[in-house]
Amino acid sequence: MNSSLTFFTLLAVLTLSASTSHSQDARRPGGANASFATREFRGTNDQTVRFSLFTPTPRGDDKLPLVLCLHGSGGNTAAANVLASAEQQKKHPCVVMAPACDSRTEHWVETRFRRGPEKRSITQELLEALDSVVKEANIDTTRIYVTGQSLGGVGTWGLISKYPDRFASAVPVCGIWSPEDAPKMNGVAIWAFHGDQDPTVPVTGSREMIAALKKAAASPEPRYTEFAGVAHGSWAPAYATPELWDWLFSQQKKTSPAAK
């Protein structure tokens, strides 16, 4: 099956499922809990992005890593609340950013794989908002990470294909992207997750991306975990994998990305 056609069709399915999600105006962006503050940022393109932000109590002058968590079409990201928990913060203190994307009218990233009404990419205002948090929260710019589930998994793949210099590592969960973009992701540490019984985003999405990365001799070598018997909700076992977080926070860019 043509990979581009598969991706094209799956984004249409993800978009359709978004019509059942409830308004994000009544809750914190990304489904974040009460430990997060709600922020709003207006980009230079005059577009606004809302996001939830968790900032731990400062520990001296130590710079902290930041994890960008992209939600699925239902508006929730499991990763954000896991990372903000007391247990995780004790072991891996970090700033957590969970932005909102109205998946009925917007995509996380620009993509040619679209069906139906044109949707606007929020990448510009999202990355400008990220830059503002990096400056404000004294972030270690060599340790900025991105993860996302479902539609957010698509966004995770898309961001590292276009902006690999910005992220030390990426954890796409039940996502999909165009395999021909694999060489562009070199230098980003990747650990992908998927359920082998996923009826929404077929597991071939992750399998083909990992195969393409290996064919491109991507460095570091990508990691992949496939959960037997698991359907679309593979983010639950993925984010409950203790080794994942130890691995994630051990990743570091050799040099900070150029200032944007």
Across the major sheet, the strand order is 1-2-4-3-7-8-9-10
How far apart lie the N and C ends?
39 Å
Structural class: alpha/beta
Residue share in helix: 25-40%
Mean pLDDT: 88
The best one-word shape is: globular
Oligomer: single chain
Output the radius of gyration: 17 Å
Quick one: how many beta strands?
A: 10
Low-confidence segments, given as residue ranges, are: 7-25
Q: Strand content of the residues, in percent?
A: 15-25%
- What's the helix count? 8
Order of helices and strands: HEEEHHEEEHEHEEHEHH
Describe this protein's structure:
With 260 residues, the protein is of the alpha/beta class. The protein contains 8 helices and 10 strands. It has helices at 3-17, 78-83, 86-91, 123-136, 151-162, 204-215, 235-239, 242-250, and strands at residues 37-42, 48-54, 64-70, 95-99, 106-107, 120-121, 139-149, 169-173, 189-195, 223-227. The radius of gyration is 17 Å and the shape is globular. It starts with a helix and ends in a 10-residue tail after the last helix.
